[in-house]
Amino acid sequence: MPRFALTIEFDGGPFMGLQRQAHGPTVQQTIEEAAELILGQPVIMHAAGRTDAGVHALGMRVHLDSPKPLSPFRFMEALNARLRPNPIAALDCVEVPEDWHARFLCSGRSYLYRIINRRAPLTLEHGRAWHVIRPLDADAMHRAAQALVGMHDFTTFRSVQCQAASPLKTIDRIAVRREGDVVLIETAARSFLHHQVRSMVGCLTLVGLGRWPEERIAEALEARDRQALGHNAPPEGLYFVKADYPQFG
Fold this sequence. Notes:
Elements: E1 3-10, H1 27-39, E2 46-47, E3 56-65, H2 72-83, E4 88-96, E5 108-117, E6 130-132, H3 138-145, E7 150-153, E8 168-179, E9 182-189, H4 196-208, H5 216-223, E10 238-244
Parallel strand pairs: 3-10, 5-6
Antiparallel strand pairs: 1-3, 1-4, 2-3, 5-9, 5-10, 7-8, 8-9
Helix pairs in contact: 1-2, 3-4
């Protein structure tokens, strides 16, 4: 039975998140239903990560097993045809060993958060970025963000609904830069806590607005208390960028 690994792009706006939910449409449900129409029987999709309602993906890695001996290209083409008009697309599909797993073998995950920093309302970017009207100091945000790099107890930046066994995580990289009206926050780690990226971005934005001094980020981290969180950024600016695997692209 072939196992296919796919790279998936999606607009999270119409969905209740990636993982199946009982109360609304999800990316997983939509892909599994499309694959069932092609393969003639139910399949289960496994993903490198989970995304909340409204969060997008540029390169989510997933896998599923095919009971039919289709080529990866034929399966991808058929899947994309069945997924229309949903805002989900398979960008790549390869056959992998039967013990390869999109989640358990993932060695790193990267996210991007996009802020449009201007007074004018969003038109083309509506639903795909956080609109912040007041000017942001991206350089101050970047300096403050470096306190988050390394292994820390991220209780302050962890959702109360997080199911992770430990609040300890290691941030490999976090960088903030401005490109015109766009402020970009890039971060990478082996894994993240529920709402961790959005919580970090929300607090960094307070620094950028001048409401928090730069050292407040380190103080909030050291507090290890959700009450020390300043703000949780909205989901529409967050993108899952890439999943890394040893010996696999």
